[in-house]
Design goal:
Length: 131
């Protein structure tokens, strides 16, 4: 268990709606992720594409985002947060200085708001510690 695994636990316990989560470097490399029956299974190519989206966030809504072989519509993207939605599932990805936190959730707007808050808070904490 790496030290990053504790951050995954913190994130997944912050909202019961988070199904899977990961912390990746700004190069797309996986630092930690949920495992077992809730394994975060995005491919390296999907992660690199998502992470590079933070460099040109205005282009992300037009192309959407793919994670775990699911295509998400992206109604919102900026240089710190990308939000994707498909039916009653979605994801939030938040960028700190050196990492991107990704949480995939199930639920409607209220659940999404809770997940977004959890992801952004942890991302801000990591940024405040230099990550």
């Amino acid at each position: 268990m790496s030290g990053w695994d504790s951050y995954i636990s913190t994130l997944t316990t912050a909202s019961p709606h988070i199904e899977r989560a990961a912390i990746v470097g700004v190069d797309g490399s996986v630092w930690a992720r949920t495992e077992g029956d809730k394994q975060f299974a995005a491919t390296e190519a999907e992660l690199k594409s998502l992470v590079t989206g933070f460099n040109t966030p205005d282009q992300v809504p037009a192309r959407g985002a793919d994670l775990e072989q699911i295509h998400y519509v992206v109604p919102r993207a900026d240089d710190t947060v990308i939000f994707g939605k498909k039916d009653k599932t979605g994801f939030f990805a938040a960028k700190s200085q050196q990492a991107v936190l990704i949480a995939i959730y199930k639920g409607d707007s209220a659940e999404g708001t809770e997940v977004r808050s959890a992801v952004e808070k942890l991302s801000q904490y990591l940024a405040s510690t230099g990550y």
